[in-house]
Predict the structure.
Amino acid sequence: AIQMTQSPSSLSASVGDRVTITCRASQGIRNELGWYQQKPGKAPKLLIYAASSLQSGVPSRFSGRGSGTDFTLTITSLQPEDFATYYCLHDFNYPRTFGQGTKVEIK
Amino acid sequence: EVQLVESGGGLVQPGGSLRLSCAASGFTFSRFWMIWVRQAPGRGLEWVANIKQDGSLIYYVDSVKGRFTISRDNAKNSLYLQMNSLRVEDTALYYCTRDQSYSDSRGYYDAFDLWGQGTLVTVSS
């Protein structure tokens, strides 16, 4: 199974900051990766698919990059509603695997 | 309204069984692969199983193979997860989710674009 490793596991940031989260796959997955946001007590929400395509309705301050094994999710100008846990998920083959999550907290 | 609503969770003893259901509405259920994802308390997300539109292809995470069975009834717009031989480590919030397909010049992709609110399964003596 492909292992997905996110870093950092958590970070503290202020409103208005630029935040970057990294996800590394244990083998090449082309650009078959998505990013999800989960707030406490809520179901996850799709932000990005195909590594860099923004899901409909998601604010443009979210962006994704990468291909192969290394991927990033960037939030420009962090907003209060962006404090949440973020997960990457590959769709290259089965089993699908999520990263362990990155919790973005208020500084 | 486009939504997924899970039900069937509860408290069960180790070795017991439980059947989860997911009712879909507001979209053509039969056009989509469907998925179960779980989340143990305070932990991350884990993909559990996928089923193709007509049920002809199914995939499971290794830890549930031989114990869990995913199925669907397109006439009832419903997804199911039969869970047998339950273990303490199966304790989690189980989400039903829809697999949306996308394509562009680079290829084809899948992503989980619609989620239910989850149903809690607790395995404990």
Remarks:
- Residues 38 and 55 of chain A are 15 Å apart (CA to CA).
- Chain A has a mean pLDDT of 97.
